[in-house]
Amino acid sequence: MAHCLDIEVDVNGEHIFILDKKILVSYSNLINKLANKLTGYTKLVFNDFPGGAECFELISRFCYNNGSIHITPSNIFLLHCGCTFMEIPILIMQTELYLEGIHCWTWSEFVMGLKQCQILFSSMNTHPRYQDFLNTLLGNLSLPSSYPSSSNSSSFRFSSSDTTLNSSRSDTLSDYWKFDDLTFLELDLFEKLIISMIRLNFDHPRVCSFIFHYQKSMFFLCSSQEQKCKLSETTIDLLSLLNGSSFSCRALLDAFGTSLSLNLKMAERIKLENLLGSRLDEFSIDDLLVRGKKKEFFDVDLTLRLIKIFLLERRIYGFFGHRAKKVGFLVDLFMIEVALDPFVKYSKFIALGMALPDFSRESHDRIYQAIALYLEVHQCLSEEQRTKIWSVLDLNKLSLITTGKHPAGSTKPLSFVRQNHFKTSLIDDFIVHKFPLYVKNTTNIEKQGANFTTNTIKFMSKKSRRNYHCNAKSLPRLCH
Questions:
Q1: Domain range spanning residue 35?
Q2: Is the Cβ–Cβ distance between 298 and 341 less than 8 Å?
Q3: Residue 169 falls within a domain, yes or no?
């Protein structure tokens, strides 16, 4: 039967459809109301049609096929949005009935549904029904995961039950092949999806793994620096919504290294620092060796901020003393590294030595060695400045081995070490005032220290670290 082409529909400026008005009116209440106001050849313009031309074409096929269409996971959301907009009661009823069985969808069908959500995102992002779609999809995927060999026959299920962290992370490894199927997601939909997962109390470690996997997959597909920055900023914002125990310290450090290389805004870096500071005891010394600003070899300010965050966590949540001792050991090693930097101000060096509480260090031997190296490199310091630096030490936490030797190459004896018949050092007055117990026990120290050699400090076994300015390869991972 010949059709009368008497209605022209412009859909979002994407495509113009020329159709039979009578056929559309018989199913669509919206077209019926609009057509009653117009006679003859009718022109309609829809600027906000959900799903665009693709969705309108599906609705047109339904009308031209005597009110029948094969509903599948690949078109259900487009059809439902389209028929709701066009006010087609019979199709609305059919799609809602189909959606009742969404809990039986397979993984591949879940992916199809998300692809439709992406098509609908620009026109329905703020629509309440759109969020209902995501909740319907995700709300039925909260059972423990199963991992069959075929993705077409499996259901994608993020566990929201109380499971151990190790078990959850182990299960996440099996989800990577599923994560790959979701790399088609545009950043805006990805962000909305993750937020929906968090609101539905999905297992945070798995959500975290999904975030990192998506960032890694999409980073090298970004064509511009601006896109990479937007991706990293969104990733950081999403990570800040998760529990601190959801991700490994190493993954956070990798993300922080990326933020440094992209020169992200300080506000974004601070969000990562807040996450990293609470895990400071899991750092290695190389993780702290971040290139500093201006002339400084290392970013001392960053380390001081991380220490402050670590101690703040203590006041809020509390932590075991052994964690603080790990941080104390780490900061001591960092001070030894920083001591060789001629551009580090003595006030920052002192701040490093005094940033942690006393119980975080059982020994001040490494601080002593760091101060010795610092004064050897910074020989232009005044006596007052040297005195302030030495005041960081607690003599009661120094071993006899430390007090019996001084670093090789030193042109002057250290402030409280006597050599050449143990004569008084250059600032002996300071020692007597600050460490009276040491002066009383000098004789015992002299006897036991006579047999000690003056070898170079063993903590600086990597000789290349003395030549930062000429050996770029010695810089840590995060500096490149």
A1: 7-100
A2: yes
A3: no
SS3 content of the chain, % helix, strand, coil (to 5): 60, 5, 35
Assigned domain for 430 exists: no
Domains identified in the chain, total number: 1
Q: How far apart are alpha carbons 411 and 413 in whole angstroms?
A: 7
Rounded Cα distance between 32 and 22, Å, is 9
Alpha-carbon gap, residue 178 to 106, rounded angstroms: 12
Amino acid 370: pLDDT: 94
Please say if the pLDDT value at position 421 is more than 90: no
- For residue 13, tell me if it sits in a domain: yes
| C-alpha span between 445 and 401 (Å, rounded) | 9
Indicate whether 17 belongs to any domain.
yes
Q: CB-side exposure of 193: number of CA atoms within 13 Å?
A: 28
DSSP annotation string for 135-198:
HHHHHT--SPP---S-GGG-------S---HHHHHHHHHTTHHHHHTTTT--HHHHHHHHHHHH
Q: Tens digit of pLDDT for each residue in 104-154?
A: 888 888 888 889 988 888 777 777 777 777 887 777 665 434 333 333 333
- Residue 106: what pLDDT? 83
The tens digit of pLDDT for each residue in 8-34 reads: 999 999 999 999 999 999 999 999 888
- Is the model's pTM score more than 0.85? no
Rounded Cα–Cα distance for residues 306 and 314 (Å): 13
Locate 270 and state its tokens: 């601070």
Instruction: Write the CATH number for 78.
Output: 3.30.710.10
